[in-house]
Design brief:
Radius of gyration: 19 Å
Bound molecules: nicotinamide-adenine-dinucleotide
Distance between the termini: 40 Å
Order of helices and strands: EHEHEEHHEHEEHEEEHEEHEHH
Number of strands: 13
């Protein structure tokens, strides 16, 4: 059955892919965005679509629309952007969650929160299961994001306990793909842009720290599956690709796919940078029947193709 679906942060990297998927499934999509990190170009191809609507709105202010489901994605996701105005970042996560939960409560509809692996901080267990409470610095430069997302999770679970709201919390691990921001300091976009420009690839530390990378199509598939689970399923559920790569391996893969002859340069590690991060996705497998399907080489190829186009435009 088709629904009318609100996506906050719908003009962002993930939100634009989610909009596409939900439209393709026959739904109506209302995309709400203040265009802080999102852009019209991300959703340009959807603007004429009869079932797609855009509202310029900041989620820290209340919103009243009639919808059947809410995906709450509004929040800058990369350190350069969320540290630009840290107070606004916490407000977006916390006040934004309160506003969207209030709307979901009034309409008695399910709401999904785009949470993050950053709630695990610099994890002391590896890989991270949903039971792990995390190791987060509450007062560091990343805290506006990490603690904002943790507080949002608290709010979601309290709305569940207090108001029996249908909540779905997804903990997203590093996701990449077309429409990532070219200059947001995230490792995949950084490496690809540097390689395509023939500039040195910068690795923080010795490059032995690992990350897992999930292709955006896999992620949005997991989000939609979680949204459509029964009332009892709340999450939190990790969604990410457990394939683990060191930064050096990623740099080498990017060099290979781009055919670039860029050199590799090492820089000091930033504060609070986690050494390892890898999702345990047993719960996503059992509760969502979800599994990542796009291998790093294939996902990098389409991301490189996208950046080639953007950089030549
Ligand atoms: N990309 C990842 O690897 C990743 C990992 C974990 C979690 N997430 C979460 O997924 C969501 C989407 O991330 P993304 O990578 O697409 O980032 P993004 O920055 O591309 O998208 C975020 C969107 O939210 C909008 N936004 C920010 N503040 C807002 C506000 N106050 N009101 C309305 N709109 C606002 C931005 O303009 C942007 O369009 C975020 O909540 C992020 O925390 C992303």
């Amino acid at each position: 059955m088709s629904s009318r679906i609100l996506i906050t942060g719908g003009a962002g990297f993930i939100g634009s892919h989610l909009s596409e998927k939900l439209l393709a499934e026959g739904n109506e999509v209302i995309c709400v965005d203040n265009f802080f990190t999102g852009s019209k170009s991300n959703i340009e191809h959807l603007l004429g679509h009869p079932r797609f609507e855009v509202l310029r709105h900041d989620v820290t202010f209340p919103l009243y629309v009639e919808v059947d489901q809410i995906y709450n994605l509004a929040c800058p996701a990369s350190p350069v952007h969320y540290q630009h105005d840290p107070v606004q970042t916490t407000k977006t996560s916390v006040v934004g969650a309160i506003n969207m939960l209030g709307l979901a409560k009034r309409l008695r509809i399910p709401i999904l929160q785009a949470s993050t692996s950053e709630v695990y901080g610099d994890p002391a267990v590896h890989p991270q299961t949903e039971e792990y409470w995390g190791n987060v610095n509450p007062i560091g430069p990343r805290s506006c994001y990490d603690e904002g997302k943790r507080a949002a999770e608290t709010l979601f679970f309290d709305y569940r306990r207090q108001h029996d709201l249908s909540i779905k919390v997804i903990r997203i691990f590093n996701t990449y793909g077309p429409r990532m921001h070219p200059n947001d300091g995230r490792v995949v976009s950084n490496f690809i842009v540097q390689a395509l420009r023939g500039e040195p690839i910068t690795i923080y530390g010795d490059g032995s720290q690992t990350r897992s990378f999930c292709y955006v199509d896999d992620l949005v598939d997991g989000m939609v599956r979680l949204m459509n689970t029964p009332h009892e399923v709340t999450g939190p559920i990790n969604v990410g690709n457990p394939g683990e790569f060191t930064m050096l391996e990623l740099a080498q893969a990017v060099l290979e796919i781009t055919g670039s002859s860029s050199s590799i340069e090492h820089r000091p590690l930033p504060q609070d940078d986690p050494k390892q991060r890898q999702p345990d996705i047993s719960r996503a497998r059992s509760e969502l029947g979800w599994e990542p399907t796009v291998a790093l080489a294939a996902g990098l190829q389409s991301t490189v193709d996208y950046f080639r186009r953007v950089l030549t435009e």
